[in-house]
Amino acid sequence: MTDVGPVVGGGGDGTWSLVHSERAALAADLADLPDGRWATPSLCSELTVREVLAHLTAGASLSALSWFAGVVRCRFDFDKQVAMRLAEQLGVSPGETLERFRRVVTSTTKPPLPVLAMLGETIVHGEDIRRPLGLHREYPIGTLTRVADYYQGSDLVVLAKGRVEGLRLVACDGSFTTGSGPSVSGTTLALVMAMTGRAAFLDDLEGDGIDLLRERCDAP
Is residue 8 part of a domain? Predict the structure, then answer.
């Protein structure tokens, strides 16, 4: 698939520009996806690749105020809120799902989350979609390293910091290194995906900490 360079614009530290670039790359990768493949199960629990894309659209469409209003409407059932917002953005066909996502590629609207969390969501859910479809993206290593640094210190939205506690993670393709204990090494992308619980990427990693990380990925 064709790589997409940085999109003009973004936050003061350039993170929004990275988010926009990753959204644009994902939209380009899915442009010619046959209708029959949109129902492929993603790596995100019980969601199809089409539903994950709608979830990304929802995240780029919700302000802090609208997010909180939805939480109240769903009586603080956060899973129900996620499902409700996903359904709002799904559309009536895969083509409409993709078109709705294209409309938010350059959005800077977000729930009450750090912009780095939005970048992480875009990359992780992008791989939730790409991996089952056999699509490959050459991510800028600097972008992946920023996301890895964020996840190793955060359990916001997704358990990551707790999942790798007591392990030493070492990237073989970049500068990312963190922690102490039994080692887990591999590409920065595989480390990011394992940190966020995607067991499908564990076979891309090696080290004497793999078994412990696998247990944590498989835990409910």
Answer: no
